[in-house]
Write a structure and sequence with these properties.
The chain is an alpha+beta fold. The protein folds into two domains: 102 residues, Roll (Ubiquitin-like (UB roll)), CATH 3.10.20; 77 residues, Alpha-helical ferredoxin (Fumarate Reductase Iron-sulfur Protein, Chain B, domain 2, Orthogonal Bundle). 27% of the residues lie in helices and 18% in strands. The chain is built from seven helices and seven strands. Strand 3 and strand 4 form a beta hairpin. Helix 2 runs parallel beside helix 7. The chain is elongated and about 60 Å long. Bound molecules: FE2/S2 (inorganic) cluster.
Length: 195
């Protein structure tokens, strides 16, 4: 099916402001939006900048604003969007570095601020353990789903509070704080308190 991709272009070295550029080509069944971006880069316009790595929804690099929703480009089948026009822009609520590349510095700063690591009750024992820190499956379940965050940044792009209050930690950092607070090996809840 012929699909037109309307892609946000912005090169701060030469563009006064961003604009959308159209690319139209045949998209085959099974192509992800990321496959389509690689197709454009390899066959139509080598100047297009975007970020990607694993191509399998693990690294979190390819989050972008696809038809006005934050999504992973490698996990989004182009034809499943059910339209022959697909608009792609960088994630909102971040500074735009170039084309589809957002500056994720605030995401990682907020993540760092909640001390996303186990804070032990006894540091010496933790650094030089004299035994195992075993956990039951029930204790693991307390936080496991929050350990699956791939830090793609899409949740901050979707969060209206982050949009209006940049200092708000946002869903990613809050979920990571919970991930450690709910871990029975951790004693850092007080230090991790979100102000
Ligand atoms: S390329 Fe890694 S999550 Fe999409």
């Amino acid at each position: 099916m012929k699909v037109t991709f309307k892609i946000w272009r912005y090169d701060p070295a030469k563009d006064v402001k961003p604009y959308f550029q159209d690319y139209t080509f045949d998209v085959k069944e099974g192509m992800t939006v990321l496959d389509c971006l690689y197709y454009i880069k390899e066959n139509i316009d080598a100047t297009l900048a975007f970020r990607a790595s694993c191509r399998m929804g693990i690294c979190g690099s390819c989050a972008m604003y696809i038809n006005k929703k934050p999504r992973l480009a490698c996990e989004t089948q182009a034809l499943s969007l059910g339209t022959d026009v697909i608009e792609i822009a960088p994630l909102p609520n971040y500074k735009n570095i170039k084309d589809l590349v957002p500056d994720l510095t605030p995401l990682f700063e907020k993540h760092k601020n909640v001390k996303p690591y186990i804070i032990p009750e006894n540091e010496q024992e933790f650094l030089n353990p004299t035994g195992e820190y075993s956990q039951t499956p029930v204790e693991l379940e307390e936080y496991l789903q929050f350990a699956y965050c791939i830090k793609c940044g899409a949740c901050l792009a979707a969060c209206p509070t982050v949009g209006t209050t940049p200092d708000f930690p946002g869903p990613q950092a809050l979920a990571q704080a919970y991930r450690y607070n709910a871990d029975n090996r951790d004693f850092g809840e007080k230090e991790r308190k979100i102000q």
